[in-house]
Design goal:
This protein is mainly alpha-helical and 186 residues long. The protein contains 9 helices and no strands.
Length: 186
Amino acid sequence: MNKKNNKQFQNSDVRMKKAMLELMNTTPFDKITVRLICERAEVNRSTFYAHYKDIYDMIEQMERNLQKNLMDNYPVPEKVTPLSLESFIIFLEFIRKYKDFYRVALKARREFPLKQGIGPLWVQIIRPLCFQAGITSESEMMFYFVGFQAGFTMILKRWVEQDCIESEKTIAQIIQNIIPSIWKEQ
């Protein structure tokens, strides 16, 4: 039986992800179907649905795995200041490396990724910056965060849609310019 932790289940997942990445490089996202993924990965549709609810779920899971990979390889906070030019450059180098995936992921995104990775970011960076600025209402903090996140996401989307022509440093400087002034050192 093909259970979540057995080798066959894991191999099917790898083949489907590989198929999705290949399709993302050759096919507009709105033309990618479960059928195409299954044909390329040589799996049944039922196998796909044993792993994912739909294509959007697949993209979200792939993005979470990439984010985990990024975080596992990110320098420790003591070495890189959050929201610094250096921290953005490291992040943008990662995005460039996986730009084909992010081009589709950002196009397919149905909402801003407020839930993805928000825990550590919220606790370690956003809340302390807001408290330093005298903002104690979590609701108000979230408005600042949503505004920053929306701008950040749209900058990334435009950058990958244009094939990452600009340097990481240029984009990092643009991102730094949209950081809410209340988060900047007083």
